[in-house]
Amino acid sequence: MAFELPALPYPPNALAAKGMCQQTLELHHGKHHQAYVTALNGFVEKNEALAGKSLDEIIAFTHGKTDMAPVFNNAGQHWNHILFWQGLSPNGGGIPSSLESKIAADFGSVEAFKDAFKTAATTQFGSGWAWLVLGTDGKLKVTKTPNGSNPLAENAGTALLGLDVWEHAYYLDFQNRRPDYVTNFLDKLANYEFAEARLKAA
Q: Can you give the CATH number for the domain in which 27 is found?
C-alpha cells in the first residue's frame, strides 16, 4: 500500500494568528511534505526489499546505509512531518500540569527546558530538527538531528515534539530569524497536550 500525505489536523489558516501563515502551511504541507511522500513511494515501487515494510521499518532498514540515503531521507522526512503537524495547535503554548511537572523534574524548570530547546534548534547547522524526547532512561531530553534524521532512527527514545528548522518552515513568517521562530513555537504553537499524550503512551 502506498504511503499518503496525512490531512492537517486543523484548517490551513488556523495557525496564522499564532505566527504561521496559511501560505507557509500550504507550501510546507502541500508541496514539501507531499514531495517526500511521492519520492518515497517511487523508491518503494522500485525496490523489492522495501515492499510491505511500514514507515518505521523502512527508516530502521535504511538508516546508515549510503546506498539507501535517498530512501532514508524521504522516509525520515515523512515521519518527521507527521509528528510535526500534530505537534502544532491553534491553541498551543499551554503546558498541562503533569507534563509541566515532568519537565520541571528533568530539566529543573520550564524555562530551562525552553532554553535547552532553543539552543538545540538554533545551533543545528543548516537543515534539521529539534526534539523533545523521552529518553530510554525515562527522563525527558532535548536533542537535534540533521536533515531528515530523527530520534527513531538514532534510538534516542520516544519523540514527543519535533520542530522543523529547515528554512521552508519559517522563512515566509520570520525570514532568517530562526530564534524568533523557535520562541514562537514554544510559547504559542507547541501542542503540549499532544506531547503529554505521547509521554503517557510511551
A: 1.10.287.990
Q: How far is Cα of residue 67 from the mean position of the Cα atoms in its chain?
A: 25
- Under the banding of pLDDT at 50, 70 and 90, the label for residue 177 is very high
Cβ 16 vs Cβ 23: under 8 Å: no
Note down the domain range covering 70. Answer: 21-86
Q: Which residues contact 59 (CB under 8 A, 6 or more apart)?
A: 72, 75, 76, 79, 150, 152, 153
Q: How many CB atoms lie within 10 A of CB 13?
A: 14
DSSP string, 138-158: S-EEEEEEETT--TTTTT--E
Average pLDDT over the chain reads 97
Q: 14 vs 8, 113, 165, CA distance in Å? A: 10, 27, 20
Final residue belonging to a domain, choices 39, 60, 86: 86
List 128's β-bridge partners, or say none.
146
Q: Which residues pair with 173 in a beta bridge?
A: none
Residue 186: band (very low, low, confident or very high) from pLDDT cuts 50, 70, 90:
very high
15 assigned to some structural domain: no
Sequence-ordered list of residues with C-beta below 8 angstroms from that of 95, at least 6 positions apart, any chain: 103, 110, 192
Q: pTM for the whole thing?
A: 0.97
Q: Say if residue 105 is in the same domain as residue 133.
A: yes
Amino acid at 100: E
Residues 28 and 70 in one domain: yes
